């Protein structure tokens, strides 16, 4: 079996993923684990990584480039945030820690003083997108639990804004009075589009439109497919209203899970704002490869 | 011990409360229980009520006037909604069910076709306020898990709108990434007022302002008192932005838990909209007394 020349790692809160890479930055093997930051203590990181890579580890020293929650205060070793405006993270800003044969380079997150904001992990996806699109000047939106809107220009992360819409969707659909109304995974494109437009036109009424989903089910028997799409559309519409200064008139790229990216793409398209979609795993790996390159050839 | 001439009951989702009343509508005794709709099955209602009243029950037949979730589809017996515009509920619209010696009159909730909305229990608080303020023409706001804004005119409930702000506050403060940032019960009036103004001015940015509470804690060590007040202020501010057509230029009354009513009062006052506060338990009892009066003297 071919051994890793170096290791690329994306260490999230609930999961982690590692790639054994060859000297030409090709993937030899990809491995997953549910040993995310939330499940382990700081002293467990070296063992989790070594066990996961197993026989892919070479006999001698090996470098690992790590992004994500491993660098959080409650992670492996804290990698303090780099403040915007800044270049994407590189080896120069990484925190190095030796773990047996593995020399781990933990990439920092990015912070913004005003308004206060932070990201950890997304900066590497951004770096990957910028590496693949070196002349990109515009806005990268990273939909997810905490969706980021990021203004990128001249190779720098200029500013960003995080929206909790994804987490609010999860709480409302899973634990609120709406949970029965939106049960299952049904969908209605029409209800989604209407709700996006509705929330953008009258953002203040969000909490009333949400309750109306429940009342509409009680009074009119409206189905869970329509209700679920409406809930999603209201939250994404509210976000698009708030993020308008980011996306209006900009070149837009979406980096995230494909189904969610397609929802954002559809909502933006209805506003006359076309957006391209890039695969989030590819972008993460490209960002880690770009950071590794700065180890070999410091900038 | 004096026996009940009739019984007034407010049967909620998580709790219920019953009053033994004399023939002059004075309270003989008040009793509480955690046997709310969510904890019991339909066949358990008669036993729960009889056990709670115990020795207060007279030897012969007795009437009970009941509002709230006992009339929900999953309650004791469904009392279908009365549609707005309508008078407050009376015996004429109640659903009667005999349970041993108790003749129970379950009051209906109120519904609205467009936009779809429902209330169950609040209509009796409204009836109580209208009984105590017979010439009231304006807006009654009932802050709570699902806050209601209700337009009342010429003795009728004309229209209403429900906002889920209270439930969203509970989910975000108890279970979201913000839960550590807002832990405890600290408070800052200044942070609350600023957040109300901020959300009213830019309602679309709600989900970003929420995440900013977390980032502000991480980057600047902002305390939980400020964070908690800001979370509350953002949600109430968003609601006031959406409910503006209800309260602007209207006579406003707040009926709910006193601490929450005072927050709404303070937020409204900053908008130049004075509001009076009425005690929610008093209003509920007054509403049940008014409904009982229609049994004795049908309208």
TrEMBL record, chains A, B:
EC identifiers of the protein: 2.7.1.58
Entry's Gene Ontology molecular function annotations: 2-dehydro-3-deoxygalactonokinase activity
Gene3D superfamilies documented for this protein: 2-keto-3-deoxy-galactonokinase, C-terminal domain, 2-keto-3-deoxy-galactonokinase, substrate binding domain
InterPro entries: ATPase_NBD, DGOK, DGOK_C, DGOK_N
A Gene Ontology BP annotation from the UniProt entry: D-galactonate catabolic process
One Pfam family it belongs to: DGOK
Highest rank taxon of the organism: Bacteria
Keywords: Kinase, Transferase
Protein name: Putative 2-dehydro-3-deoxygalactonokinase DgoK1
Natural source organism: Pseudoprimorskyibacter insulae
